[in-house]
TrEMBL record:
Region annotation Disordered: where it falls in the sequence: 304-336
Annotated protein name in UniProt: Putative ATP-dependent DNA helicase recG C-terminal
Keywords: ATP-binding, Helicase, Hydrolase, Nucleotide-binding
InterPro entries per the UniProt record, alphabetical: Fic-like_C (IPR049514), RecG_C_sf (IPR038475)
Pfam families on file: Fic-like_C, HATPase_c_4
Length: 336
């Protein structure tokens, strides 16, 4: 408790060494009960007990690596336990050291290289802290982080409050009318692990867009029994077999589907969704979105002009710098 007070810069830190454990816990509001029979509050056991899993089974974070993908036969697992703040930080540090990598794409016509991360750390931090904050500590299920070359998935139980619509998550405007584990949120906020103002989801969307990554996905079931956050790997950061050619080209070249090529070619200027659909001469909006627009955004060659508000009436689509570079490289290719 004293270490926590010192870290957050509390004025109580100066008086803490002279207080008994009970007195300090009462001052921090992590203990209650009558003087003759004090008892720890749940938030105190979760943050200031070395083995909170004794009181709340499955208080842990399981990080699972699938080198062959989620459907493969091999996986590696590491389990993190302990007080919530320490457990969360250790899991984040482990993920950052072992699974995050930056891809540098050099261009023959300019000194500036393009740099992208397979998974931006800030998005992972927000997603994992969100799970620690909002999971139920009555559930006997751990938080699970599943990592493959294709995506990083964070699973927690239960799902979001029913007052929040899933489409609001995708739009970045999810605001809960009720906060689960408000005291946990207060401690996480003091440790600068969360802001506690429904800013986590918008930040995940913003960070993923800034990295040029495909948009994250937020999933739950009808009964809100679980919550899944999927962070897709940046297309240019996925492991690809080396190609030997006689031409000077960027070190990483994405494979581009014909539908995505059509989108890139059509974006001679910024276009609205309707304008882009008309430019492609496509009648079915659902087919256009599923087969053309979403794959184009996922490829990293096309981006939104307003990624923080995907459903904005002023939303437009344009080529990214990578998209423009790809077009210049392949424009003379008869296959396109």
């Amino acid at each position: 408790m004293q270490a926590f007070l010192q870290e957050v810069g509390s004025t109580l830190a100066e008086d803490a060494p002279g207080l008994s454990v009970e007195a300090l816990a009462r001052q921090m509001n992590v203990a209650g009960g009558p003087t003759e029979s004090p008892w720890p509050k749940n938030v105190g056991l979760l943050f200031f007990n070395d083995t909170p899993e004794r009181f709340f089974p499955a208080v842990q974070i399981d990080v699972v690596w699938f080198p062959e993908g989620a459907g493969g036969d091999r996986f590696e697992e590491k389990i993190f336990k302990g007080p919530l703040a320490r457990m969360t930080r250790e899991a984040l540090s482990y993920i950052q050291r072992n699974f995050l990598r930056e891809t540098v794409i050099k261009h023959p016509d300019r000194a500036e290289a393009t740099r992208v991360w397979n998974f931006p750390y800030a998005a992972i931090e927000e997603a994992l802290v969100n799970a620690v904050y909002h999971r139920s500590y009555e559930e006997r299920e751990p938080i699970e982080v599943r990592i493959s070359n294709e995506e990083l998935v964070i699973l927690s139980f239960p799902g979001p409050d029913r007052s929040i619509r899933l489409e609001d998550f995708q739009a970045g405007r999810a605001v809960s009318r009720r906060y689960r584990n408000r005291r946990i949120g207060e401690f996480l906020k003091e440790l600068d692990l969360t802001e506690g103002r429904s800013t986590g989801i918008p930040k995940i969307l913003k960070v993923m867009a800034a990295n040029g990554s495909p948009a994250p996905l937020f999933e739950s079931d009808e009964d809100r029994l679980s919550f899944v956050i999927r962070l897709p790997c940046h297309p240019l950061a996925r492991p690809v077999p080396p190609k030997v050619t006689g031409e000077v080209a960027p070190e990483v070249t994405p494979e581009v589907a014909p539908e995505v090529v059509r989108v890139v070619l059509a974006l001679q200027e910024e276009l609205s969704r309707t304008g882009l659909q008309q430019a492609l001469d496509l009648k079915d909006e659902k087919h256009f979105r599923k087969a053309y627009l979403l794959p184009a955004l996922a490829s990293g060659l096309v981006e939104m002009t307003r990624p923080e508000t995907p459903r904005s009436s002023k939303q437009r689509y344009r080529r990214t710098r990578l998209g423009q570079r790809w077009l210049e490289t392949h424009q003379g290719n008869s296959a396109y």
